[in-house]
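User: My collaborator sent over this chain with a note saying "see what the structure looks like." That's all I know about it. Can you take a look?
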Amino acid sequence: MTLPLLRLLPAAPALRPAGRALLLACAVLAGCAGTRPAATLLTLPPAELRPAEAPAAAAPGPVVSVRRVAIPEYLLTRKVRFRANSSTLAEWPQTYWAERIEVGVTREFVSALRQALPGWTVCEASCNDRVAELALQVDLAPLDLQRSAGMLQSHARVSVSSTAAAAPGAPRVQQLVDRRFEQPSGADTPQGHAQALTDVLEAVAQATADGLRQRVTPVR
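Assistant: Without extra context I'll predict from the sequence alone. Here is the result:
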């Protein structure tokens, strides 16, 4: 009986040492990528000031527009940064702001200011169908978490000016706040960092509201 002829396939060439090393490196990198922790998307907690009581018979307060809050340029990034020392910044690992930080800072400041000024109309940027009599400018620099000290430190400069609609001509500017603020972070975590930021915004909003009530006489 004649046996069928078997087709002999060529044997796979043996890997050279360099090839084996390359495959091993790829396997290691794949393993590291698989164990990388998921990214954390961070937002500022909502401002929760205790609202001040408005006098029952008081006339409605003025209309105030709040311009975009100014913060240091080195914070204008999706990565959440803190102060490592006097000249160095660092970042929380795998942690990112879920929105532009200046947008969140402005929103929570405006929210806190509304709560601190019942009866007033406080708008972010524009007031749509209302004409703002006063324009507020807020500058927070620095606005740094000193992580080693567990303390968020800022210097707030807040000024208000009469708008052209309320007082034609050059606006009259009044300084409302020019002082430092410090707030413990509570926890050495990105969440503690975010909470300290909101706490500072609430403190600045309260100081701004006090300044507005004491120093500003709206033009009617």
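A starting point for your reply to your collaborator: The chain is about 30% helix and 30% strand.
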